[in-house]
Amino acid sequence: MTMVTMSAREFNHDVSSAKRAAEHAPVFITDRGRPSHVLLSVDEYRTLIGADRSLAESLALPESADFEPAVLDFEAKIPEL
User: Fold this and answer.
1) What Cα–Cα distance (Å) separates residue 23 from each residue in 7, 29, 37, 41, 46?
2) Is residue 29 part of a domain?
3) At 9, which CATH number?
4) How many CB atoms lie within 10 A of CB 17?
5) Which of 42, 43, 46, 79 is the least crowded, having the fewest Cβ atoms under 10 Å away?
């Protein structure tokens, strides 16, 4: 996978070219020579965030085992009416 880089000016002048390039590889958009944004295809984005997994597959992942919800410490009070 080759990295594609284009300036913000190039991106603004030829968005369709950037979209075509993003179908094959991430497109890094620079602002004043520094990377500022990345354009990805929807499929690549979904893969990146794990949206292609089912809920059961996500819960079975090792990193999900580290989740421990916080314990709330409070005293229940009966409201005065």
Assistant:
1) 18, 15, 16, 5, 13
2) yes
3) 3.40.1620.10
4) 14
5) 79
